[in-house]
Amino acid sequence: MREVDATIARRLDSGVPLVGEVARYIIASGGKRLRPVLLLLTCGALGCASEQRFNLAAVVEFIHTATLLHDDVVDESTLRRGKATANEVFGNPASVLVGDFLYSRAFQMMVETGSMRVMQILADATNVIAEGEVLQLMNIRDTALDEAAYLRVIRSKTAKLFEASCRLAAVLAGSPAAMEESCAEYGQSLGTAFQIIDDVLDYEGDAAELGKNLGDDLREGKVTLPLIVAMQRGTPEQAALVRHAIESGRTDELPAILRIVQGCGALEQARGVASEQARRAVQALQGFAPNPYTESLLELSAQLLQRRS
Questions:
Q1: CA atoms within 13 A on the CB side of 70
Q2: Are strands 83-84 and 79-80 parallel, antiparallel or unpaired?
Q3: Measured distance CA(118)–CA(167) in Å, rounded
Q4: Over the stretch 216-252, which tens digit does the pLDDT of each residue have?
C-alpha cells in the first residue's frame, strides 16, 4: 500500500494547481483504500508479483475517487469521512471537473499496461458504474422499489469496481478463465455485502464514526434495503410514514423512522442479506491456494459484516 500511495501521489501531478489540490484533498481525507487492497491481496493469493499491480491499484482508487466527487455533487452532500466534502470546499464545478481528470488519468495509466484485457475490464466497469448511478437517480423517491431492483443498483454502482479489482488481479496473474470468474464472484459478492452494510449503518451507526450525517439516504430520497423491509414489515401506519418521508425528503421525522426501522427487524433482515453475500464471497475462494493472502480475503469477508464505519 505504501507503493500504491506513492504511485497515487506521483500521478496526481498536473500543470493545473487546482486539479492536484482538489484530488489530494479527497484522497488524503481517509477512506479504507479497500479496492486497491482487494487487488493486492488477490494478486498475493494467486502468487502474482507483477509491478503493474501497484499501477492498477492506483487506477481503481482514482476511478473510485472520481465517483465520490461526482456523487457528492449529485447528492448535495456536505460531509464525507468526517470532513467537508470537496464540493463544499471547492464548489461543484471544480469537483465535477477534477473527477473527470481522475477518470482520464486512470485511463492513461491503464494504457501503460499494454493489455487490451485490462482496458476492457476497466472500461466495462466504469460504464456499468455510470449506468448504476443513473439507475439510482431514476429510483429516487420511488417507494415501489423492491429488493431485486435495489440489488441491481448496488451491484452496478458499488460492487462492479470491487469485482473489477479482483478480476484484474487474475488477469495480471495469467489465471485461467475459471479462476478469473471466481475472483470476480468474490469481488462482486463482497462489494454487494459492503454496500448493504453501508446502508444499514445509515440507520444505526454513529455519525462521528461514520464520518457522514445519519439520515443522508433518507434526505436524498434513496430507497435502500432497510427502508424497503420496513415498508414490508411495519404496520400500515408505519409504512405510510416511511413512504411519506422518502417521497418528501424531509428528515424531521428521522427519529420516528429510526424507531420503525430498528423496531420491525429491518436492520437484522438487511444484515442477513449481507451475510448471504459474504458467504458467497467465501465460497468463491474455495479453489484458492491456502496462504496468508487467501486467509486475509476470508477474514475480510467476516470483518466487513462487523464494521461500524
A1: 18
A2: antiparallel
A3: 9
A4: 888 889 999 999 999 999 999 999 999 999 999 888 8
* Domain extent for 147: 2-306
What DSSP string describes 18-62?
Answer: HHHHHHHHHHTT----HHHHHHHHHHHHTT---THHHHHHHHHHH
Separation CA 260–CA 305 (nearest Å): 22
User: How many other β-carbons are positioned within 10 Å of the β-carbon of residue 194?
Assistant: 24
User: How many structural domains does the chain have?
Assistant: 1
Q: What is the pTM of this model?
A: 0.93
Check if the beta carbon of residue 39 is closer than 8 Å to that of residue 58.
no
Cβ contact 61:8 at 8 Å: yes
Q: What is the CATH number of the domain that holds 6?
A: 1.10.600.10
Is a pLDDT exceeding 90 seen at residue 305? no
Of 159, 197, 195, nearest to 284 (Cα)? Answer: 159
| Nearest CA among 293, 308, 305, 136 for reference residue 212 | 308
Give the list of residues 6+ apart from residue 185 with CB closer than 8 angstroms, or none: 163, 280, 281, 284
